[in-house]
């Protein structure tokens, strides 16, 4: 089947469904929730009448406007995806303007997400890559056909160069603007196939380092529009007081003092809290603080204490009688372990983690009758349409979504709770827009955290120390059970986001992965690298334990286990050269880790020192070699890797959410510790693409290896002390040293 046929088959087989389990969460649509919203633009859209398709328009002055279908949250996708169209249509990049695509899944949906408009999972480039290149190639053929009519020649005689159609035999040419001004669209429109795509040798833009991101200038000069920047005529402001324990509801509301605050216009009881509407942000905040609410006490989350639960999770992982759901099996791992000469067993654990986006949750909504317009920093326009329609009692096609820039996303802004806030309050003041802003305290306490998680890993070795079997048990709650219950059920209770990354490409004869769900009621969600962030922690640390058992170099052991994986071996060998792996360090040690998650190969080495008196770890430098297959924008890939390593270092050393009897103990950055600039390591990145390989995802690739690389460096520095619990808090490090 050709790539074109695959895309078509996805289009005709899509279906839609809306998920509301566990309160307002994520909407997933396989198929269309149609809409025709005009999104926020990064640059003014050209007023051109030449529209070869829904993705491109060309003005008489030669300005080419290209739609960007994904949400820009700092990952540079607003440059990367339009660049693919510009490459294949031979646009002059200096004359390209990018426009945020409308919320129209039928037209702009991601094939990698079965047609839904959702940005996440490192799936944007992978999902859109083939489609957008074909769109660009088709656009070029349409322009050539129009120019052929204007020049009275055959389209087959024409070629293109950036922004221009050339007829070499006569020496004549037409700029794209000239074609747009007087050319007619051919009927029927020519179609494009894989054969029409440029070869790598013909690429003008893909792979270049000198193409800047289109979103950066506005961010530098302050003109960029984030959700927080939205200002509309006659706009009101909103805030919501939520229960201190998830799942509780207001039973009695004393709003006497809140109503007396100047500027407060309405107090709105909600099923999950109390809304305040006012003329100013300050008024809503003051009124919120003055509300006296009696909350219900029946939520099962009141039984949730994270420290106790994590210990329970570890015991479940060790209890092999609790089988859970088999996620993957190759060979008979259980039998092989029983027959092994030696078995290595290890537990690895991860605390709850907060998303910590720079921009807290916010959204602006306007309800007029049965129509809704929304301005929001959302990762999921399709989901936004669906949930807004539920709140108002309308249909998704009557919901218009304007996607602003996002001040960070990391999966949090794929949720819909902040959207529901804005639409619920706007419904109370029909005809006036309402902008809801979460405080940082709201954001911390009511986040959809990365799952609490424990892993139990068993590895069987033969008499020579060779791996004979690998059994991996993952104990955690489910994200899919809340956000995609139909999919969760169809997979037999397996959550492949929670277990993501456990299926590796190391050569082992028998391999088994089990998922044992723990349902304790807390809403957990998609977090930067989700499952891979902790499954690779366990895997890569155990690889080092095996190397220590064999007396082998951990880098060489990885190369041995990846003997049939040339791309993997290349990144490991490359990063070893970068870090001078074999050189002794005074008072420091190196640790290595590798990941093949999201279709990209990534190897990292961390240089670490340790204060044995305080238990504090210092990461001095991280080297990284990454193979994304196709490196569309190498310099931007380096930037994303740096973000991932910095974020990964922060979550490995500092970040944790503690819940006691259902209440989140942290509230702001004074209690939720993140990495400081002075603590960030030096980072060196090498992008080593492999010709002929498919494009890999990049948004989350940098995070998974850094934590295990740090842990493995500490083990080498201390003669084998293993850190098995994220984050590596000083007291945990001291406990490991003294064990």
Description of the structure:
This is Carbon monoxide dehydrogenase. Residues 221-299 form the Aldehyde oxidase/xanthine dehydrogenase a/b hammerhead domain. It holds the Pfam family MoCoBD_2. With 739 residues, this protein is an alpha+beta fold. It has 3 domains: 3-216, Aldehyde Oxidoreductase, domain 4 (2-Layer Sandwich), CATH 3.30.365.10; 228-296 and 356-445, 2-Layer Sandwich (Aldehyde Oxidoreductase, domain 4); 306-352 and 449-738, Aldehyde Oxidoreductase, domain 4 (2-Layer Sandwich), CATH 3.30.365. It is built from 21 helices and 28 strands. The strands form 7 sheets. Strands 10-11-8-18-15-16-17 form a 7-stranded mixed β-sheet, with helices on both faces. Strands 13-21-20-19-14-28 form a 6-stranded mixed β-sheet, sandwiched between helices. A hairpin with a 4-residue loop joins strand 23 (601-611) and strand 24 (616-627). Helix 2 runs parallel beside helix 4, helix 11 runs parallel beside helix 12 (417-428) and helix 16 (532-550) packs parallel to helix 20 (706-718). It is globular, with a radius of gyration of 27 Å. The model is unreliable at 1-46 (pLDDT under 50).
SS-based structural class?
alpha+beta
| Share of residues in helices | 25-40%
Mean pLDDT across all residues, rounded?
93
Percentage of β-strand residues: 15-25%
* CATH-defined topology of the largest domain: Aldehyde Oxidoreductase, domain 4
Strand order of the largest sheet: 10-11-8-18-15-16-17
Main beta-sheet annotation: 7 strands, mixed
Q: What's the total count of β strands?
A: 28
Provide a quick synopsis of the model.
With 739 residues, this protein is α+β, with helices and mostly antiparallel strands. The protein contains 21 helices and 28 strands.
């Amino acid at each position: 089947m050709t790539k074109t046929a695959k895309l078509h088959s996805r289009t005709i087989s899509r279906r839609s469904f809306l998920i509301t389990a566990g309160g307002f969460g994520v909407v997933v649509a396989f198929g269309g929730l149609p809409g025709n919203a005009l999104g926020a633009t990064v640059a003014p859209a050209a007023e051109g009448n030449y529209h070869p398709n829904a993705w491109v328009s060309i003005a008489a002055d030669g300005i080419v406007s290209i739609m960007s279908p994904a949400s820009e949250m700092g990952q540079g996708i607003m440059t990367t995806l339009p660049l693919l169209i510009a490459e294949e249509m031979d646009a002059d990049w200096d004359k390209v303007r990018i426009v945020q695509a409308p919320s129209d899944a039928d037209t702009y949906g991601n094939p990698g997400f079965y047609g839904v408009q959702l940005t996440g999972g490192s799936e944007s480039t992978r999902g859109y890559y083939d489609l957008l290149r074909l769109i660009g190639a088709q656009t070029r053929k349409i322009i050539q056909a129009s120019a052929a009519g204007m020049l009275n020649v055959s389209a087959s005689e024409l070629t293109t160069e950036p922004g221009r159609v050339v007829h070499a035999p006569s020496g004549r040419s037409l700029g794209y603007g000239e074609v747009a001004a007087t050319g007619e669209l051919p009927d029927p429109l020519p179609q494009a196939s894989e054969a029409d795509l440029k070869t790598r040798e013909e690429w003008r833009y893909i792979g270049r380092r000198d193409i800047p991101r289109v979103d950066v200038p506005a961010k530098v000069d302050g003109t960029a529009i984030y959700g927080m920047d939205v200002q509309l005529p006659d706009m009101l402001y909103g805030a919501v007081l939520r229960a201190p324990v998830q799942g509780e509801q207001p039973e009695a509301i004393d709003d006497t003092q809140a109503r007396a605050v100047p500027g407060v216009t309405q107090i709105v009881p909600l099923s999950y809290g109390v809304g305040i509407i006012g003329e100013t942000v300050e008024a809503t905040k003051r009124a919120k603080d003055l509300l006296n609410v009696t909350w219900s006490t029946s939520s099962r989350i009141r039984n949730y204490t994270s420290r106790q639960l994590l210990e329970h999770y570890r015991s479940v992982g060790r209890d092999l009688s609790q089988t859970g759901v088999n996620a993957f099996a190759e060979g008979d791992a259980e039998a092989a372990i029983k027959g092994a000469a030696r078995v290595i067993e290890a537990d690895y654990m991860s605390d709850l983690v907060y998303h910590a986006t720079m921009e807290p949750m916010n959204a602006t909504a306007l309800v007029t009758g049965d129509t809704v317009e929304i301005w929001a920093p959302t990762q999921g326009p399709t989901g936004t349409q669906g949930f807004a329609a539920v709140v108002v009692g309308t249909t998704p096609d009557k919901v218009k979504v304007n996607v602003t820039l996002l001040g960070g996303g990391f999966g949090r802004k794929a949720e819909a709770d902040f959207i529901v806030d804005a639409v619920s309050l706007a419904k109370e003041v029909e005809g006036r827009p309402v902008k809801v802003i979460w405080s940082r305290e709201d954001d911390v306490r009511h986040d959809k955290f990365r799952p609490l998680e424990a892993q139990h890993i068993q590895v069987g070795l033969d008499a020579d120390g060779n791996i004979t079997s690998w059994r991996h048990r993952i104990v955690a709650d489910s994200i899919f059970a809340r956000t995609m219950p139909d999919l969760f059920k169809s997979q037999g209770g397996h959550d492949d986001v929670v277990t993501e990354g456990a299926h590796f490409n190391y050569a082992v004869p028998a391999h088994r992965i089990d998922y044992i769900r723990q349902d304790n009621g807390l809403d957990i969600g998609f977090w930067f690298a989700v499952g891979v962030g902790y499954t690779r922690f366990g895997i890569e640390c155990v690889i080092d334990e095996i190397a220590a058992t064999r007396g082998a170099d951990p880098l060489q052991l990885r190369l041995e286990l990846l003997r049939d994986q040339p791309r993997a071996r290349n990144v490991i060998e490359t990063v070893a050269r970068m870090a001078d792996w074999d050189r002794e360090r005074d008072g420091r040690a190196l640790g290595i880790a590798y990941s093949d998650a999201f279709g990209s190969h990534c190897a990292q080495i961390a240089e670490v020192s340790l204060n044995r008196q305080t238990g504090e770890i210092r990461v001095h430098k991280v080297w990284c070699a990454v193979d994304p297959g196709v490196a569309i924008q190498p310099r931007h890939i380096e930037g994303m890797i740096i973000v991932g390593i910095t974020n990964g270092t922060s979550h490995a050393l500092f970040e944790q959410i503690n819940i006691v009897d259902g209440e989140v103990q942290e509230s702001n950055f004074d209690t939720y510790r993140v990495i400081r600039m002075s603590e960030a390591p030096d980072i060196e990145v090498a992008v080593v693409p492999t010709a002929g390989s498919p494009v890999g995802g990049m948004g989350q690739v940098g995070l998974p290896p850094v934590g295990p690389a740090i842990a493995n460096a500490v083990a080498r520095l201390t003669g084998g002390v293993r850190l098995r619990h994220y984050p590596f808090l000083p007291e945990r490090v001291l406990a490991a040293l003294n064990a």
